[in-house]
Design a protein that fits this description.
- There is one protein chain.
- With about 100 residues, this protein is mainly alpha-helical.
- The chain is built from three helices and no strands.
- It has a domain of about 70 residues.
């Protein structure tokens, strides 16, 4: 499912924070949880905004409701989630 469940997202964000911020592991657990939750909220908000724009674009093209459009929507939605993750959780080779 795109995006993944909140529990999975929070675990992934927490792991990323521990790997990318050496000081993160020294913070109290409640603070770690709050930072990860805030980041998750921002990621989800960004995703839903982009998802809405995608749906609007497909509806404007008058393709919404067709099987090819549904396939395109699913594929582009996965790409949107990957883009959000790349933006918020960059890997070492990215800016």
């Amino acid at each position: 499912m795109i995006p993944p469940t909140q529990d999975l997202r929070i675990r992934s964000i927490t792991r990323w924070l521990k790997d990318s911020r050496p000081d993160f592991g020294t913070l109290p657990p409640a603070e770690q949880s709050q930072i990860a939750t805030d980041m998750d909220d921002s990621m989800i908000e960004t995703f839903w905004e982009q998802d809405d724009a995608l749906m609007q674009r497909l509806m404007k093209a008058k393709t919404w409701g067709t099987e090819p459009c549904l396939q395109q929507y699913r594929l582009e939605r996965m790409t949107l989630w990957q883009d959000v993750c790349s933006e918020f959780l960059p890997t070492s080779g990215q800016d």
